[in-house]
Amino acid sequence: MYMIQPGAAAILSVARRLKGQFIAESLFLRRPAVLRGPCLGPCLEKWTAEYLGQKGGDKEVKIHVSAVPQMDFLHKNFVYKTLTFNEFVKRASEIKHSDFFLCEDESYYLRSLGEDVRKEPADLSKQFPDLAEDFHIPHFFAPDQFFSSVFRISSCGLQLWTHYDVMDNLLAQVTGMKRVVLYSPQDALHLYLSGDKSEVLDIDSPDLQRFPEFVKAKRYECVLEPGDLLFIPALWFHNTLALQFGVGVNVFWRHLPADSYDKKDPYGNKDPVAATRALQALERALHTLDELPADYRDFYGRRMIQRIQKRTYFDNLSSTARQEDSDSTLPSSPFTKPG
Ligand SMILES: O=C(O)CCC(=O)C(=O)O
Prior knowledge:
The protein is α+β, with helices and mostly antiparallel strands. It has nine helices and 16 strands. The protein has a single domain (2-260), classed as Jelly Rolls (Sandwich), CATH 2.60.120.
């Protein structure tokens, strides 16, 4: 197993681990890590572009298409289009296209969706039952914690913007190689967030005039090979770069009690309800500060920051408080407790 080693910027240490150790050291401690060679089922041999096209058939899928490989959600440099699944897979697996929307070397990306996209999370067994049979969902959480299973299919070179999700996530790379760069939630202030996404698009060559703090964000990196499983804990930022045409499936599950999550969230990326309430309260507090002159707003703004830091920052919590905090958020599944 390749372990992404916290504390070593941009360096990936390599270590062989057993599944039990993966659970104990990664899921339990909530650190990203890669498990090499778990049982993902016959998809590993079967899922060629031809086979996917035959089995997925002419079901329509909504896809992202861009003229450049680096997709930018914040400035929307891509368009949404609809294709049949087999035509999409054919185009995503080729470099130059005879049929295209924007240009002959356009890039494609599929993040599969539920049947009713606004209400239902994606579930491979519902949208692609024949293909779902080939993929064995890793048993790292209790069945009632399952939220969604999502196809991630990308053209070679496709890079997806840095973002976080609010649920725990196993990203299974079935075919093709993919680079994944991760940043800890504790680096949120260095990532220039706009909602759940970072404004820093080019993470390899960032514009440091615009984003000077970005250098402070510690980068964790791995290259996924077919058959690898990456654990991305909730709130960890991730940016993916397909080094080849590739097919992945990611499985989200609820790490917190079910009622912590927004019920109208088919994507698994809306903040937990308590966080949303807290952010709304902050907006109200800021609105209240508007009653004061600018120098007073500045002063009380700084006091509020200090209060927030003292009260919430992980580094400031005592180790007992931290332990209680992590115990209270442990999932009930026996799989997630160290053996
Ligand atoms: O694999 C990808 O292309 C993106 C994966 C991702 O964003 C996720 O698993 O949440």
